[in-house]
Model the fold of this input.
Amino acid sequence: MLGGNARAAVGRFWAPVVARLARAGVTPDAVTLVGTLGAIAGAVGLIATGQLFWGAFTVTVFVLLDMLDGALARARGGGSVFGAVLDSTGDRAADAAIFGALVWWFSGAGDNRLIVLLALLCLVLGLLTSYVKARAEGMGLNCDVGVVERTERLILVLVGTGFLGLGIPYALHVALWVLTVGSAVTVAQRFATVHRQARGRALPTRPPSTPPSPGLLL
Done:
C-alpha cells in the first residue's frame, strides 16, 4: 500500500506552501473547494473532449493542491467536522468526474467500449472501497487495509490517461486492468477485515424514534 508514503512525500514537498497559506489566512475548506472544482473542470473540459495528456496533467495539479487541506488544517491548529465531510465528498466528486469523463470520451469519439467498461468498473469499485471503510468505521471498526486506496487509484488512472494522450498504445488499458483487479482485491480485503472484527458483535441498539406527526407525511 503506497498511500502513506505518497502522502508523506507530497506533504514534505508542499510544506513551504502550506506555511505561506497559513500566514495568509487561507482556510483548508477554500483549498478543498479549489482543488475539487479544478479537478472536475480539468476532467470535464479536457479529458471528456479527448485532450487526454493535458487533462491528466491539469487534474494532477489540482489533486495535489487538494492534498494541502489536511496539512493546512494542522498548521492552523486542527480541522473541523464540516471540513472532513467536505474533503471526503470532494474526493468522491473528483473521482467520479475523472472516470465519468473517460466514459464520455470513449463511448463517443474515442470509440473504445473496453475502456468504457473498465472505467465504469473502476468507478463502482472505488466507491465501494470508500463506502465499506466509512461504514465500518461508523460502526467502530478499523478498516484501514487494501492494496489500492485513493492515492494509488489516481496515480494509475492519471498516468495511464496521460501516457495514452502522448501516443503510448494500451497505456490506459493496462492501468485500468490493474486498477480493476486491485480495487476488487481491496474490497474483498476490507470485507474480510470487517467480518473478522465484527464476529460475535451485535448491532448497537438505538432508542425507538418518535413517530412523525400525520401532517408531516403529506
